[in-house]
Design goal:
alpha/beta, Aldehyde Oxidoreductase, domain 3, TIM Barrel, 2 domains, six-stranded parallel sheet, four-stranded antiparallel sheet, 11 helices, 12 strands, 19% strand, elongated, Probable nicotinate-nucleotide pyrophosphorylase [carboxylating]
């Protein structure tokens, strides 16, 4: 799921942002020929994600650098674990430190929180999924982290799935007309999803032939009624203000999908450090 043709560009653009005219501190203090050893160290428990992305940061800065992975993506890591050993030019390690950590900490934080949610609903039919509420230009990394954490990915972009939302419906005039237009023109491999805000809209979406119906901010009782009315004819997605405290109650309603925007838009990065060693 990681396309390094894309990721290399992300890394290079981020390095230019961070040191457009070089790293003045490192350039003034560290001789070009200096070499050092360092480790990536877990400072708290969690699910590791992004170790190959961190590795690539240093490889772009120094093609001869040695990066030994001691843990891999998806591993359950503990505070104090050494995740990788790095050996190479001191300048390259210092220049790449912040970017490598930023990406590794964010991706591991997303994977960790996703895993917490997934474990909460283990045993129910529902799966936890992400949304498009990702950091601009980092969506591939964010969604990969959700996958590593045990979640599933919603649409990657506006181009790869039909999702009719409230403003589409207002612009077109009705759910029925919106679904009709989509169904008439959509590729045969693509499904049509509709977001609804109440039971009346749900019933219209169901009658219109939608393949997936998203229940936006429904109560638990309303979700149960929707699942009963659907009778398995469509996939039901729950969305809106879902968190670690209420996700199991929502899963109990029988919905198929639970989308959680906070997985990516309010992520708490996992604490990981890079420390020089003798």
């Amino acid at each position: 799921m990681l396309n390094f043709l894309v990721i290399d560009k992300i890394i290079k653009d981020a390095l230019v942002e961070d040191m457009p005219y070089g790293d003045i501190t490192t350039d003034l203090l560290i001789p070009q020929e200096s070499t050092s050893s360092a480790v990536l160290l877990a400072k708290e428990n969690g699910i590791l994600c992004g170790i190959d992305v961190a590795k690539r940061v240093f490889e772009i800065l120094d093609g001869s650098i040695k990066f030994e992975k001691l843990k891999t993506d998806g591993d359950n890591i503990q505070k104090g674990d050494v995740l990788a050993k790095i050996q190479g030019k001191t300048r390259a390690i210092l220049m790449g430190e912040r970017l490598a950590l930023n990406l590794l900490q964010r991706m591991s934080g997303i994977a960790t929180f996703t895993n917490m949610l997934a474990q909460k609903i283990k045993g129910y039919r529902a799966t936890v999924t992400d949304t498009r509420k990702t950091i601009p230009l980092l969506r591939m990394l964010d969604k990969y982290a959700v996958f590593v954490g045990g979640g599933k990915n919603h649409r990657y972009s506006l181009s790869d799935a039909v999702l009719i939302k409230d403003n589409h419906i207002k612009a077109v005039g009705s759910i029925t007309e919106a679904v009709k237009r989509a169904k008439e023109n959509v590729p045969h491999t693509m499904k049509v999803e509709v977001e609804v805000r109440n039971m009346q809209e749900f019933e219209e979406a169901l009658a219109s032939g939608a393949d997936i119906i998203m229940l936006d901010h429904f109560t638990v009782d309303e979700m149960k009624k929707a699942v009963e009315k659907a009778e398995g004819r469509v996939l039901i997605e729950a969305s809106g203000n879902i968190n670690i405290d209420n996700i199991e109650e929502i899963a109990k309603t029988g919905v198929d999908i639970i989308s959680v925007g906070s997985i990516t838009h309010s992520v708490k990065s996992l604490d990981i450090s890079l420390d020089f060693v003798d």
